[in-house]
């Protein structure tokens, strides 16, 4: 451990100690979130702190008193987002880590939680910029690999059927929550839980092709009608999950976030390396499958020119079903990995869906390799942007890339020009 | 209890929210129903209209009429920015770009950097003074009989549904005009319209601007009725509520959005009121909290969208011949 991080740990402990003092004073039977804002040993008065539910609904705003203490009463136990209003901080006082402006806290029945905002002068010097660049590049690759795994299915489904599947993000959520069910509720280890979840999500995905999309295709339902139906399906999956699991963020039981080790300029957790390594293996496997096997060649042929593929003897319906099954399985893998390095919540897939769209269009709609490349770029752009701009805006940059590529090269980096009308 | 639920549902069906959503759906009808443009970012236009009023009045202390104009101009600018890159491409590219743009707007408005102007996650309030000062209804009594609307609520309802009526008349007149015929011919066959010498891009852009501006009007009405704006009101699901309303009422039918909005909010109102009252009476399992009511409502919206598109894509008032839409 370096000197800097040891110092950081000390500061953290100090604040934890302060925080526990605060908690003792506030102990009572309703739930609340509070804390004490301290800079250079003195309380910081007059700072607004907002507490909102995980869905963004504002619960209340607390203002720190002359002692720097503040608290907000909560309606019920649950997970809350606590945001400090930096505009109300007095001159010369800033968040030590501008990333930690919004904290996520879990409050259990009848207890109080303490939100820690470390104040003081901002620690930022030249060499830290490089370090942050390296760290965010690492995070970007990690995030991009996960987007890529989920986006291949989206792109291939579009390529083979012409449908933009708006329910694809919710398949990610479904996979993550199936693994959660077996891991946390049933009590299996995460690895068998993940395998079961992947198989079930793939089966579900194949099932909706066989039970819903194929009959609609046979009936001649238009693509726009099918697209709107996929939105309805997305609503159903997302909110059935919300109904059963609620809106809070949950971690898996195994592989909790571990102490990071320093590798060169980057802080890495072992679980992150496993996630990234497995993602690369799976992506290479998919690429080999698409180029080497009969089924994979069939998928690319149907995506490229459906009529030609059909007339050369490829069973198009079977290929489409395989694409749905494979895409469903891959979304589950992506969802579980995302759940391992962050947490699972019912909106995770929808947030990812917009980034998948950006990645797929950037790479070229309908191509598998384009989806991989585009997703990596989207992941990198969103993470590296946090070095220079507020992390609240990281998705804005990723989605901005989408609009720019449509202006400059609408067929995407690897797409063919005739694909667009 | 059945009577209470019925009155709750009627209050929702005729309330200001239903009128705001009717305006959103009228805008979408111009886009999707008549022109065949797949706008999935109507929530973004709504946000622009709502924040146009809120920022002008609350942040800069301007008058209400200026706020409404700012909101409408904002919607025009947004439509131009969205239209230029996507209107020459296939319909589904517009869908993805508009949903992305609506999310970009929401995240920008929500960010700390924008807080001095937009209020960030806290939002803005107290900008309805001018609007309610115009209210001619005397205080101290309730209106519309059993609906028991306060004077302010009654005033928003009167203004809101009048706007809905006016916009419906406008759409009716436009769709009988040569402009409407060109718009619909673009929906049916873009190349045919082009071969007759029509500037398809320009007509699509006009449609996007007009529908977006009507959506912004819905946003302004929504903000005034609630007296507060918060960024997370404008989640993407708002757009899909409007789509459900449009499809339910009848895509490409002039009166569809009015019929759709009242029936849709009647259904939502009775569902929510019923679940809440049954839950209060202890007739539902314990875990049926407020979140579960929301989850059931949104699942219902999803099922409604799917069922309508599969079994009755023309909705209540629509004409199946008007619905031969496809991506091309």
Outline the structure in words.
The complex is a heterodimer of chains A (421) and B (328). By secondary structure, chain A is α+β, with helices and mostly antiparallel strands. Helices cover 59% and strands 12% of the residues of chain A. Chain A is elongated. With 328 residues, chain B is mostly helical. A two-stranded antiparallel ribbon of chain B has the order 1-2. The mean pLDDT of chain B is 90. At the A-B interface, helix 5, helix 10 and helix 12 of A face helix 4, helix 5, helix 12 and helix 14 of B.
Features of the shown structure:
heterodimer; A: 421 residues; alpha+beta; Immunoglobulin-like; ABC transporter involved in vitamin B12 uptake, BtuC; 2 domains; four-stranded antiparallel beta sheet; three-stranded mixed beta sheet; 12 helices; 13 strands; disordered N terminus; B: 328 residues; mainly alpha; two-stranded antiparallel sheet; 71% helix
Rg calculated over all Cα atoms of chain B:
20 Å
Residues in β-strands, percent of chain A = 5-15%
Figure out the total of helices of chain B. Answer: 14
Strand content of chain B: under 5%
Examine the secondary-structure arrangement and name the CATH architecture of the largest domain in chain A.
Orthogonal Bundle
Structural class of chain B: mainly alpha
Question: What general outline of chain B do the C-alpha atoms trace?
Answer: globular
Q: What is the C-alpha radius of gyration of chain A, as a whole number of Å? A: 24 Å
């Amino acid at each position: 451990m370096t000197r800097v991080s040891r110092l950081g740990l000390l500061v953290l402990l100090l604040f934890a100690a302060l925080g526990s003092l605060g908690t003792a004073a506030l102990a009572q039977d309703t739930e609340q979130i509070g804390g004490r804002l301290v800079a250079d040993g003195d309380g910081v008065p007059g700072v607004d702190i907002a507490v909102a539910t995980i869905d963004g609904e504002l619960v209340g705003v607390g203002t720190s008193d002359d002692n720097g203490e503040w608290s907000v009463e909560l309606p019920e136990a649950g997970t809350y987002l606590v945001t400090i209003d930096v505009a109300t901080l007095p001159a010369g006082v800033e968040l030590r880590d501008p990333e930690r402006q919004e904290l996520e806290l879990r409050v259990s029945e009848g207890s109080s939680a303490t939100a820690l905002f470390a104040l003081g002068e901002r620690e930022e010097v030249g060499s830290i910029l490089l370090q942050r660049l390296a760290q965010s590049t690492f995070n970007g690759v990690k995030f991009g690999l996960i987007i890529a795994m989920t986006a291949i299915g989206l792109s291939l489904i579009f390529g083979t059927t012409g449908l933009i599947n708006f329910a694809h993000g919710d398949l990610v959520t479904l996979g993550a929550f199936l693994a959660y069910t077996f891991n946390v509720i049933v009590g299996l280890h995460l690895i068998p839980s993940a395998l079961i979840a992947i198989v079930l999500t793939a089966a579900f995905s194949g099932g909706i092709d066989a039970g819903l999309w194929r009959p609609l295709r046979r009936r001649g339902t238009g693509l726009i009608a099918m697209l709107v139906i996929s939105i309805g399906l997305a609503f159903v999956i997302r909110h059935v999950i919300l109904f059963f699991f609620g809106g809070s963020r949950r971690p898996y039981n195994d592989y909790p976030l571990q102490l990071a080790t320093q590798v060169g300029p980057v802080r890495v957790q072992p679980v992150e390396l496993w996630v990234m390594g497995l993602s690369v293996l799976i992506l290479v496997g998919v690429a080999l499958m698409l180029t080497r096997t009969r089924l994979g060649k069939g998928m690319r042929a149907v995506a490229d020119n459906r009529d030609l593929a059909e007339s050369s003897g490829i069973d198009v319906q079977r290929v489409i079903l395989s694409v749905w099954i494979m895409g469903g399985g891959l979304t589950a893998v992506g969802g579980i990995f995302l759940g391992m390095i962050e947490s699972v919540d019912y909106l995770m897939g929808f947030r990812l869906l917009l980034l998948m769209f950006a990645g797929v269009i950037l790479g070229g709609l309908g191509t598998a390799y384009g989806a991989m490349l585009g997703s990596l770029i989207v992941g990198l752009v969103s993470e590296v942007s946090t070095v220079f701009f507020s992390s609240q805006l990281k998705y804005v940059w990723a989605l901005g890339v989408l609009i720019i590529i449509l202006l400059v090269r609408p067929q995407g980096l690897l797409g063919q020009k005739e694909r667009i009308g | 209890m059945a009577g209470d639920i019925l009155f709750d549902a009627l209050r929702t069906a005729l309330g200001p929210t239903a009128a705001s959503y009717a305006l959103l759906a009228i805008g979408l009808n111009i886009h999707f129903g008549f022109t065949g443009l797949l706008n999935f970012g109507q929530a973004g236009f709504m946000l622009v209209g709502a924040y146009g009023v809120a920022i002008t009045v609350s942040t800069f202390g301007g008058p209400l009429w200026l706020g409404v104009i700012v909101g409408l101009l904002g919607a025009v600018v947004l439509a131009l920015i969205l239209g230029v890159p996507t209107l020459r491409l296939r319909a589904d590219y517009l869908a993805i770009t508009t949903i992305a743009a609506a999310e970009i707007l929401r995240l920008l408005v929500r960010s700390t950097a924008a807080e001095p102007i937009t209020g960030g996650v806290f939002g803005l309030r107290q900008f309805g003074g001018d609007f309610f000062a115009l209210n001619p209804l005397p205080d101290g009594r309730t209106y519309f009989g059993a609906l028991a609307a306060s004077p302010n609520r009654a005033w928003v309802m009167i203004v809101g549904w009048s706007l809905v009526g006016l916009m419906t008349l406008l759409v009716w007149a436009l769709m009988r005009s040569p402009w409407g015929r060109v718009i619909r011919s673009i929906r049916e066959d873009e190349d045919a319209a082009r071969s007759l010498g029509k500037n398809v891009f320009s007509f699509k852009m006009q449609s996007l601007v007009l529908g977006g501006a009507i959506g912004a009007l819905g946003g302004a009405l929504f903000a005034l009725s609630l007296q507060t704006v918060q960024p997370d009101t404008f989640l993407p699901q708002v757009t899909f509520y409007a789509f459900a309303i449009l499809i339910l009422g009848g895509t490409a039918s002039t009166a569809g959005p009015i019929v759709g909005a009242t029936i849709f909010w009647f259904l939502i109102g009775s569902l929510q009121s019923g679940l809440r009252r049954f839950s209060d009476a202890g007739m539902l399992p314990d875990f049926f909290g407020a979140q579960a009511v929301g989850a059931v409502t949104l699942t219902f919206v999803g099922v409604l969208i799917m069922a309508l598109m599969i079994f009755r894509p023309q909705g209540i008032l629509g004409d199946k011949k008007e619905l031969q839409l496809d991506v091309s």
